[in-house]
Amino acid sequence: MLTHIHIWNFAIVEALDIELEPGLSVLTGETGAGKSILLDALGLALGDRADSTVIRHGENRAEISVTFDTSKAKNAEAWLKEHELDSEHECIIRRTVNIKGPSKAFINGRSATIQQLRELAEMLVDLHGQHEHQSLMKTDVQQQLLDDYANHSDLVTKVASSFKEWNKLNTEFKQLSSAKNEQDHRLDLLKYQVNELETLNLQAGESEKLDIEYKRLSNASQLIQTTEETLHALEQSDKGSISQQLSRFISELQQLGKTDSKLNDIASLLDNATIQIAEATSELHIYVDNLELDPQRLSFLDERIGTIHNLARKHNVNPDELPELFERLQKELDSIENADGHLEKLQQDIIITAKAYQQAADSLTKSRTKSANILSTKVSENMQELGMEGGAFEISLNTYDAESFHANGNELIEFLVSANPGSPAKSLSKVASGGEISRISLAIQVIAAESTRIPTLIFDEVDVGIGGRVAEIVGLKLKQLANHRQVICVTHLAQVAALGDHHLQVSKQSDSAVTISQINYLDKPLRVKELARMMGGIEITQQTLSHAEEMLANVGNG
Fold first, then answer.
1. Looking at the 3D structure of the chain, how many domains does it have?
2. What gap in Å lies between CA 111 and CA 103, rounded to an integer?
3. Integer Cα distance of 371 and 421 in angstroms
4. Quick one: DSSP state of residue 112?
5. pLDDT digits (tens, 9 = 90+) for 134-166
6. Is 407 contained in some domain?
7. Of 286, 306, 337, at which residue does a domain stop?
8. Cα(206)–Cα(297) distance, rounded to whole angstroms?
9. Spatial contact of 48 and 39, defined as CB atoms under 8 Å apart
10. 506 and 550 belong to one structural domain
């Protein structure tokens, strides 16, 4: 619900704050007083194009701020949350226009794009009349109105979800078919590569082990020579083995240790060395016993390592990455070889999903057709009451091509109207004037009031070209609509204005230097005067005032 409008330096408005309430608010004033300025300012805040000509003369910047209570606007609150702009059931939209530079927009204090303003505005306000925000001309809004009236949201959801699943499978099928055609020529190459890697049968970590073994075998002669020379030195010296020599030295040092105890520590160190030399000698014997020249094994290693490195270079990977490459190529090969089976499975799934979609879409079509007939009849009846005698309203369900599926069902919804008896029904935008469109919209909104999702409805020029009894009926329809939604109506007719729960008057004041537009809330005495002005001419008589007072009393607002 729209709760507050702040306008600053816009057109002839210097500063204006308007508090708005639930129910029916009527906006009146003499021609040229500035009623359209309020709607223009609201339109700007909701995403209309902006240019510097709207800035009040002599100023550098204009600003419009509008506040909404979103507690009952679930779609808007979901949108705000999705865009991380939510703020405790309140939405403040602010738009600034500068003499130089682009306009700026803000939602709940955070910068926003004009497109975001427009998306959000369509969930909060609907302006009916000669205005850019007049949503009744949009086919998606017409569809939404019919679907809301029919109360078959479960069918709409089922059709949309069935279409989404069908579209997903169909897209996957097309992509796989295209990929299969492109990959057929790759199949032979993959088979060759996989066979080559499979024959190699390289195990994880094997390449490193082979390199170590190759280095050992290729240097076996040197290893044998050096280790044997070392053993000979350790065991077969002219003076006996090193261990024997050390034992003798240790014994001599221990004898001398009786003379100088410091030599005992040295003898102990040599004793430990004797143990380590003995262990080293034993390990060398084992090493030498297991070390042998194996030209045949060396040749095998040389060939296998060469094969591994050649394949690694061919695939531009490290040798130890070849097992992972083999697994990856094997999977790709399996995928291509099994593509026919996958395609066949997808085709079956597409047929099943298409059947489910069509069943849901057919049910939606039946429900739409039934509701369209009822709504068309009721709107046509209301049109007669609203000064459009002989006019007829029709909802057309234009069926799509049988081969095509759509997220919104089998048909495109279009509102048609015949302005005169016998005239063929044509698109609403082509045959109806601004005032007629407002009244047709009013007729629809009154019927669908309980199902419409937009919390605030604004009617401009809804009473153009009517008067008397029809004007009173228009007012009553607006009053009825305001039982379910906030309604704001700009009107020239006293019969409509008298039915308002709240009455705002736009006036204009001028002096030699400046012209200012302002809005005042009218109490009962001022409402009587304003209604009298709207009914009377230049001079307001006591009789006109009495008539105005009686009019207020008759509708319960006096």
1. 3
2. 11
3. 23
4. E
5. 667 788 888 988 998 898 989 999 999 999 999
6. no
7. 337
8. 16
9. no
10. no
Question: Is residue 118 in a domain?
Answer: yes
- In angstroms, the CA 245 to CA 234 distance is 10
Most confident of the following: 151-165, 375-389, 413-427: 151-165
Residue 95 tokens read as 């738009």
Phi, psi of 19 (to 5 degrees): -100, 130
pLDDT tens figures, 199-220: 888 888 878 888 777 777 767 7
Task: Note whether residue 406 is domain-resident.
Answer: no
Rounded CA separation 147/448 (Å): 10
Tokens, residue 86: 């939510």
137/511 Cα distance (integer angstroms): 42
Structure tokens at 389: 């005698």
Give me the domain span that covers residue 286.
201-337
CA dist 502 and 532 (Å) reads: 17
H-type helices in 102-219, by residue range? Answer: 114-124, 139-150, 153-200, 206-218
Token couple for 225: 């020579």
DSSP string for residues in 298-362: HHHHHHHHHHHHHHHHHHTS-GGGHHHHHHHHHHHHHHHHTHHHHHHHHHHHHHHHHHHHHHHHH
DSSP 113: -
* Final residue before a domain boundary, out of 337, 372, 390: 337
